[in-house]
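To assess whether the prediction recovers the assembly geometry, we first specified each molecular entity separately, as shown.
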Amino acid sequence: MTDPSNSLVSRGIPAADDVRDVLPSPERLAAGPVAIIECFQQIPCDPCSAACQRGAILPFTDICDLPQVDHALCNGCSLCVVRCPGLAIFVVDVSREGDRGEVKLPYEYLPLPTKGETVTCLDRTGAALCEGVVTGVLKPRSFDRTALITVDVPKQHALEVRGIKVESRAQKEGQPA
Amino acid sequence: MMHTSDIAIVGGGPAGLSAAIVAAEQGHRTLVIDRQTVLGGQLIKQTHRFFGSKAQHAGTRGFEIGKALAAQVSGNANTDVWLDSTVIGYYREDGILLVERPQGLATVKADRIILATGASEKALAFPNNDLPGVYGAGAVQTLMNVHGVLPGQRAVMIGAGNIGLIVGYQLIQAGVQVVAVIEAAPRVGGYWVHAAKLARAGVPIHTSSTVVEALGEESVRGVRVVKVDSAWRAIPGSEFELDCDLVCLAVGLSPLVELAVLAGCEIAYVPELGGYVPWHDQEMQTTVPGIFVAGDAGGVEEASSAMVGGELAGLAAANSLRPFAGHGERMSSAREALAALRAGPTADKVRGGFAKLAAARQGRCST
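The predicted structure of the complete assembly is given in tokenized form:
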């Protein structure tokens, strides 16, 4: 592991160097959807490991361990995404033919986007990166109020999109029908 | 009329409730006294998922944990709960608690007392900090998450510890624009994952910065901020202003130790634990036999450790009344859980604080 970046410790923004340490291999990324855990600090927290039904998030020996992912076991199911109290897990799929990729992210704001809606995709600094189309909105009771949003994005941005901006209700209602 | 009880617990937050559960489980008549009208303490306004491990309900939202603990306490026939009731005095000579209740004053005589009174928010001195619109983070959370009232439209959060970061996130969830987080230290004090949530929502975190003054006549219309150097001195010419109608202070907590002082418990000053802290041993017992302390009242940490600390105090108080089988094992597993929560680098300060607290007592004993 490299030392945490100044950007991360002083502004909360993981830098490329931080992220590189937790990325799956290019081969694994090309093989299908996979979880990326952007957790860089040893804090007392372990629900992600228990959330994984496939044993891909290795059991913690100490509650302050950083999560270790066996990306070969991960199938991108996304159960961990809505279990992480830090909302720090994303599932990325850059394996499809063509120039589109997919990001699954946790979302706890209102209003929820709707399927088919075009949203602004944000990077780790909150800056607008590109437009994306919401292809999934899951919020069953078992997710306990954290929605799992799937957004279709240009493939080249799939490793950078970490948030979405949804138009507010007022903005939506203000639009001509 | 005097109420008698085996174990009286002052405070129905995570520590007090956890203590009550284990104490009542051992068959002791337990009384929980809380000044709010619902049990749960600060848990009732925590809408985020908790950290910790499964044993401390990690992954569950704070208010749900509060509900579950309260239901366990209320459902126990050995436990009485007095709500809307404030302990306002302790008579050392007779070991009697004086309680202000809606129906009048009451006195309580208990064989053991567990002080789980929590902590109060620290303030920050700056010109105009008395303007309407300057709030403590706890008040903002109460308004939003308990009463459903928006405290403002544009917020500046002072403090990038976990409370500042979490309440900042909750403000965004409530529809408030968070203009910035201001932090005097050069680094984010809270968990980076909390900071990252704010960052990707577009909220700038200004470290090495502090508030100079709040601006406004009738109410807050902004804050003036200045950068500080490594010696915490304001850097001339680095001032800037932020427009806001809400300034939220999240600059730390101090243990509520008034009752411990009244009871004659030895108090140590440990800044790492939030200020004045009642000295206590591994069993959470203070220097006054029979009086225990748990949760933030015994040193400011967070809710997960408060729950474990409450369990320890409850087990120890119960065992001191009537030794029970399995006490030792349960104490050691709770101690292990507490040590694990305090093990990581983010708990360096708290660990150092408790080491200091232990040393303060040894120092006194050896002289």
